[in-house]
Design a protein that fits this description.
four-stranded antiparallel sheet; alpha/beta; binds adenosine-5'-diphosphate; six-stranded mixed sheet; binds magnesium ion; Rossmann fold
């Protein structure tokens, strides 16, 4: 049994504080959903957890079984069991998935024996053609193929905790079922702990979260059981915010100064 604990996490991007004190705790085998309006800081949380270097941590801590992850480079966070599936997975021309995953396994001290067969089997399980394994990672993949590919990597790397940033966006109904069933199996069979960022109750009917959290303007403003996702479907974020007496839903960076060259006379 492992615990991913996020405490009082505050982080800034480009000089604006986006995360304003986030507390969350996920245990092995649990599925937590994180919902929230656009611009509330969900992706910022995912990037900050993984240590993207243009995201500045202002305070707080992120631990797995008591061991601090903040301040460590991304690869060390991965070695300690954290995996983040990005909302917009990047293309890596010239690097095949086998090389990428093989390196990640070796860094963890695991020999990548039988990796090619494992990747092929997992590709089939998430409905991704094997031919995709021959290309550079994500190169010329459709949105849905990228999400299947993230799931494939998750399955082969077997982290302790996975943060899935809108893994369901861009997936058709069949792909959504393949991807969520694979993740569900990991939580049940391997004790994977999941923090699933999503807008859609649809994913949650497949993944069946233990807890649902709502992020607004960089803070978790509501936490509850699966019924919270249903309430949100009904009320929308604005309705929930009104109920909670919250005025700001998103974090808005300061306005750009007006264009001085737009004045007549220039
Ligand atoms: P969400 O994923 O909840 O829609 P994000 O975390 O992507 O929201 O964004 C939260 C706020 O942070 C937004 O106002 C966004 O414009 C800003 N932001 C996020 N990343 C960056 C960045 N790299 N540079 C500048 N602003 C950013
Ligand atoms: Mg986002």
């Amino acid at each position: 049994m492992s615990v991913l604990r996020i405490e009082g996490l505050r982080a800034a991007v480009a000089g604006t504080e986006i995360l304003r004190g986030v507390d969350l705790e996920v245990r092995s085998g649990e599925v937590h959903a994180l919902m929230g309006p656009n611009g509330s800081g969900k992706s910022t949380l995912a990037h900050t957890l993984m240590g993207r270097d243009d995201y500045e941590v202002l305070s707080g801590s992120v631990t797995i079984d008591g061991e601090e992850l903040l301040g460590r480079p991304t690869w060390q966070r991965a070695v300690r069991g954290l995996f983040v599936a990005m909302q917009y997975p990047v293309e890596v021309p010239g690097v095949r998935l086998e090389e990428l995953v093989g390196t990640a396994l070796r860094v963890r001290g695991q020999a990548p024996d039988g990796l090619r067969e494992r990747l092929a089997a997992e590709a089939e399980r998430v409905g991704m053609g094997e031919r995709f394994l021959q290309r550079g990672v994500n190169v010329e993949f459709s949105g849905g193929e990228k999400k299947r590919n993230e799931t494939l990597q998750l399955a082969v790397l077997e982290p302790r905790f996975a943060v899935l940033d809108e893994i369901d966006s861009g997936l058709d109904v069949d792909a959504l079922r393949d991807v969520s069933r694979r993740i569900e199996a990991m939580t049940a069979e391997d004790g994977l702990g999941v923090l699933a960022i999503t807008h859609y109750a649809r994913l949650l009917t497949e993944l069946r979260p233990d807890r649902v959290h709502v992020l607004m303007a960089g803070r978790v403003v509501a936490s509850g059981g699966p019924e919270l996702a249903e309430t949100l479907e009904r009320t929308g974020y604005e309705g929930l915010a009104a109920e909670l007496g919250i005025e700001t839903l998103a974090v808005t960076p300061p306005e750009e100064p007006a264009d001085p060259f737009a004045e007549p006379g220039f």
